[in-house]
Amino acid sequence: MSEPSLPTLRNLRERARILLKSILTDLQPFAKSDGTFRRKPDSPSIEDDVNVTTTCSCLMALAGTNNFRDFYKKQKVNEADPIFQTMVDAPWMSSGLTANNAFTTTLVLRTFGFLEEEKLLKRKSEGDRSIQEKPLKAWELHLGIKDVLLLAKKLKDHADAASEFLWLSLSDKTRHDLTKKLSTTDTSSKKRMEEELKATLALDLRRIIQAGWIYDDKTFDKASDQTKKLIDTKPTGYKMAAVNHLLLVDQYPKEFARPVKLSLAEIAALMATDANNFSINEYPPSAAVLYWFVDGVARGNINLTAPQWTELCTWATKEFNHERSLAVAEHDAMMDPVAMGMSACLCARLRAISEETKLGTSKEHAAILPSTVELERSVEELILKQTKSGIFPKYFPMFHYQDAGSNFCFTFELLEAVLHEFGRNDNKLLNSTEFIQALEKAVTWCENNRYSETAEYAGWNSGGDLKTVRREQPESWATAVVHMFLWELASVISRRIQREILRKYKARDPKPRQVGDSTKTKKSDSPTLDGLLDIEIALQNKTPNLSDVLRTRIIENYRSQNEMTLRRKPIKKPLSALLFGPPGTSKTETSNAVADDLNWPMVEITPSDFLKGTLANIYLKADEIFDDLMDLSGVVVLFDEMDALVQTREGEIHLDIASQFLTTTMLPKLTRLHDQAQVVFFMATNFQDRFDAAIKRAGRFDLLLCMGPPKLSEKLDRLHRVYSMDSENEHTKKAGAAIKKYIKDVPEMQDQLALYTFGEYKAFLRTIADAEQVDEAVSKLDDALSRLDPSEFQERVNDYSQYVTLKLAELEPLRKLVKWKKISGLKKKKFTLKDVEKENIPISPIIRYFCDRQESKEQY
After folding, report:
1. pLDDT exceeding 70 applies to what percent of the chain?
2. How far apart are CA 825 and CA 482, in angstroms?
3. Cα torsion at 673, 679, 684, 687 (round to 10°)?
4. Is the pLDDT reported for residue 162 higher than 60?
5. CA neighbours within 13 Å on the CB side: how many for 537?
6. What is the CA 34 to chain-centroid distance, rounded?
7. Checking CA distances to 739, which of 311, 384, 585, 765 falls within 20 to 30 Å?
8. Sign of CA dihedral 679, 683, 689, 695
9. Residue 513: how many CB atoms within 10 A of its CB?
10. Residues 689/696, Cβ–Cβ less than 8 Å
11. How far apart are CA 584 and CA 452, in angstroms?
12. What is the Cα–Cα distance from 47 to 59, expressed in whole angstroms?
């Protein structure tokens, strides 16, 4: 089957973008005064009651879709620190889950990753520690139990009142497990048995301390004075659970560690020591929860140790192989395609991190994981299970809420992860029509199941709460997740469209500089623009070098930008230039160099692109080309040799229908391209005076730059660049010095050599000495120049100058208008082409050039 067409992809993206427009109005009604969110439309906004997981989903959606600051604009909140700190300070519970459970902890870590990635968490100074490194949260793994066997024995023996109370409060299952494990004689699996016992016991003890008041001075007779002071405040709710925890610590100091505050990085490290730490209640670890954990660690730039990454990779691979084998076998009773999809996403993210050897990983971790082909194939198998309505059936829950029932992985949590992990340029899923059709069905579900915007609340419901479904009430977290999916979909499709457009126009990739061994393609630190002989620009009564102008106005502003950053947040800096001047003045080479220095691809548009097909097609072709260009981001675009298509609408020159139309059409299109601010673009011409004045105005081109011949000093002092050498050598130094000597006392010869373009200068040197190999050529040049006498060199210059574009002799008629002695003096004179025409002076290329020089300007 053929690949999806550009119109198909654009249509799907537009459908997603239309739904995305409502994210601010969708989530606003759920927001509380402290910046956090409630889950349901009618949920009460209780003071100090923070719904952590719901707020996590909403913050991730706002950050990920680049809407955080707009959402909190009225509250004048530019950074997420106060809201995130409110979440951190709140108990990490959710609908009856115990404090610091793996689900809530993971979502907080992932939210941190989103906020950190989008630079929404501020640092007071450059040396200020990241929030991930600061002590933040009183958090402990397994309730801080440090000697589980001693604790279990005390509880089983229940020799004291506290032990008896706790023993009787444990569930029957926990008491059975505790008795069984204490009586085991198998020492080979002692460590695993202790970890399992710790997890089981900690879960029940958390339920006990969160259930209500447990203090009695006879039962907990070792309570510290500090704990008693807290008890005297008559705490309730979350604070009571914290006091009950302290009672256990006071009563059993050898068995429990005293709570300490940990940083997010420390919490992540503890979680990653064992995949079983991601178990929730009695449920085994879920691939979805581990994926969100790894996603948060990656976005938040949190380093883990090599053994921790090995644990995660090993578990992920085992889980993927298990789930895929059940799906392939079509084991209806046990298979869970959603879990298979999430485990594929987990493996893909671990592989991506490991292949870049980031965050403490190595290539060895990548070797543990399934291949990309296997992972993509599993996603193809996953979409076969999609229902006609666009969602996936519910298979096995990730875990069970005590207060809210089973929690399943929502279809759009799955699809958001699939798009993020398999929407990269090196993935092939987006080439699949079946995969695109699956995404179209998912968007159709979003369109058909969105609650009306005319209601007080609008958005989506996951279907997990029948009461809200019957009332047609959206859930904030489900609405947030759908928007995360839609944003990821639009982003992935935009990247896919860009790749197709770059291929369509045969884009030039940024060129690596060869350093050292010619077989290597390591980028040199030296900017590519520095490899060109520099040009003097007449700009605002100054004469800066072209390289300095382009570097300071464009390259430095966009050097840190790429396709994704510019799509998310275009920066309003100079991004376009009209390059004009005589033929051979390196307009194309300069555009290439800027693209290389930005490390961006370059697309070249010529008149032939507009003139393909019949005259009638020109109208459609112009629209098509600019539609394509508007879909690009982080690309340099060069409109080359555009004189015929954008020449002036006034004057005596007769324009044909095509030129008239394209001239008129390009005005608004160039403005749109400029205003979108996602590409850097240049337009090159030899005849700027023939351009329509409207095209040259501000809002289309930020810089008007006359491109002249390289400066004479560049030709003499950097002669090695004429031969594309990275550095000078003895021969290029001597050759440059010899030419300086020959022209030292001959102003006319200095001026004429200054007017040679790069190509003309190189060709001139070849008339003196030439060879196929660079080293031999410069050696011969050095030798030949050393044997020439001054008169011979001048004769060669005079002979060759008959064939160059800018002939010094053709300036003579200009003396009727202005007087000068040397070219340097002429550059300071002010005159225009209209002034020249009034004097009936023939407009030669060199006269046109000196008029054009004065047209350079900045206009932004």
Report:
1. 93
2. 67
3. 30
4. yes
5. 21
6. 30
7. 585
8. negative
9. 15
10. no
11. 62
12. 19
